[in-house]
Design a protein that fits this description.
Residues 313-426 form the Mur ligase C-terminal domain. This protein is an alpha/beta fold. Helix content is 31%, strand content 21%.
């Protein structure tokens, strides 16, 4: 870990706890800052705050009082989940206080090579693939960010001859200043999180911020099949490494003669890849690029791609039961992810879907339901899903209380050879704290059959 004096004897306010807030608070305390933590949950119900209090860190719990800004803080570290519309955060910005997220702290102390990965979809799969490939090459690599351990916690331990692979959300990237990964990946850009961002433009700007501080010595791996994305990164000073599933490129990553190529070097035949779904080819191309730039051998890449069958909660094969195959795609919290999941299967499918109602319509899913023979719906969007299924001509649609009940109902509706797919197209927050919890309940119920 780099020795920095940026926060020595400085008053720093950490707003919002959970894993990232706790890790940031402890790191700042270690760096010599006078830390105050503010969290909405009352102290009596707040184990994280109680732990920090035991460490000698000041805590203010129960609300986000704007009056805290009168205490003369010099920096604010914001939990990514807290929106910029929060009155305390708005007030801080108005008076010119720097507001950062913990990934910025991670970068400031990091000594290792950092690979940063963002995009609307595919971040987790790409991050996991890169981690596995570098590890298979017997290099020391750590996975952090939205997947694995909090980035500023990992950054305290990695050394200059190691690699840190970080999955990054738009929420995190809105709060960076110096942050600069050696290799950056943007998997794709679609409309998402508009309940958090003020506009699509703000969302896209947050994503492309990953390359804001890159230099010609750094690399940006980017999806050239998206003209909008290519236009939005034209300011980048990084060396651009394009990838495409539809074009044969002079340089970069592409598919030719049913094989993946990197800079005109054949890496692996597509048919040898285990991970299902055409959408995953984008993730694989990006991961191969980051790995090749990290000196990983084709043998190591081959060993991963011929064995890796998916990330937990992302089109994850769970079990075959009486000739039915169950897949957990709980991480599909938006339309695009569910489209991709449905597009990956070409046999009769029973779709389990529904969740938080963000005001979206689901008509775009209609053309992807051609193989869906039945739907099991739940959550706030259940009625919208019923209407979607009816428009698509699906005759069997069952409404249940939640994902727990959906498994046995789907099993009853299914026949041998069917796919039973949990791909909600919605966030989980109407019934579950995270998509992981929702997916784990699904897995548990499948294994009980």
């Amino acid at each position: 870990m780099k020795s920095i004096s940026t926060y020595q004897n400085k008053k720093v306010l950490v707003v919002g706890l959970a894993k990232s807030g706790v890790a940031a608070s402890l790191l700042l305390h270690r760096l010599g800052a006078f830390v105050t933590v503010n969290d909405w949950k009352p102290l009596s119900e707040n184990k994280d705050a109680q732990t920090l209090l035991d460490e000698g860190i000041k805590v203010v719990c129960g609300s986000h009082p704007v009056e805290l800004l009168d205490e003369g803080f010099e920096f604010i570290v914001k939990n990514p989940g807290i929106p910029y519309t929060n009155d305390l955060i708005k007030g801080a910005i108005e008076i010119g206080l720097p507001v950062i997220t913990e990934v910025e702290l991670a970068y400031q102390i990091n000594e290792s090579k950092m690979i940063g990965i963002t995009g609307t979809n595919g971040k987790t799969t790409t991050t996991t693939l890169v981690h596995h490939m570098i590890n298979a090459d017997k290099q020391t690599v750590y996975m952090a960010g939205n997947i694995g351990t909090v980035a500023c916690e990992v950054a305290q331990h990695v050394t200059e001859d190691e690699t840190m692979v970080v999955e990054l959300s738009s929420f995190q990237l809105m709060g960076i200043d110096q942050f600069n990964p050696t290799i950056a990946i943007i998997t794709n850009i679609y409309e998402a999180h508009l309940d958090y961002h003020s506009s699509r433009n703000e969302y896209v700007e947050a994503k492309v911020a990953i390359t804001r501080n890159q230099t010609p010595d750094d690399f940006l791996i980017v999806n050239t099949d998206q003209p909008e994305l290519m236009d939005r990164v034209n300011f980048s000073k990084a060396t651009i490494i394009p990838f495409s599933t539809t074009q044969i490129l002079e340089n970069g990553l592409y598919i030719k003669d049913d094989a993946i190529y990197f800079n005109q070097e054949r890496v692996i035949q597509v048919e040898e890849i285990v991970l299902p779904g055409a959408h995953n080819l984008e993730n694989i191309l990006a991961a191969v690029g980051a790995s090749k730039l990290s000196g990983v051998s084709n043998e190591a890449i081959y060993s991963v791609l011929t064995t890796f069958s998916g990330v937990r909660h992302r089109t994850q094969f769970v079990r075959e039961w009486q000739g039915r195959k169950f897949y957990n795609d709980s991480k599909a919290t938006n339309l695009l992810a569910t489209k991709s999941a449905l597009d990956a299967f070409h046999t009769p499918t029973i779709l389990l879907c529904g969740g938080l109602d963000r005001g979206h319509e689901f008509d775009e899913l209609g053309p992807y339901l051609s193989n869906v023979k039945a739907m099991v719906v739940f959550g706030q969007t259940a009625q919208k899903m019923i209407e979607l299924g009816q428009k698509a001509g699906i005759k069997t649609i069952k409404r249940v209380e939640g994902v727990e009940q959906s498994v046995s109902v789907a099993a009853e509706l299914s026949d041998e050879g069917d796919i039973i797919l949990l791909s909600p197209a919605c966030a989980s927050w109407d019934q579950h704290p995270t998509f992981e919890v929702r997916g784990d309940i699904f897995i548990e119920q499948v294994n009980k059959l």
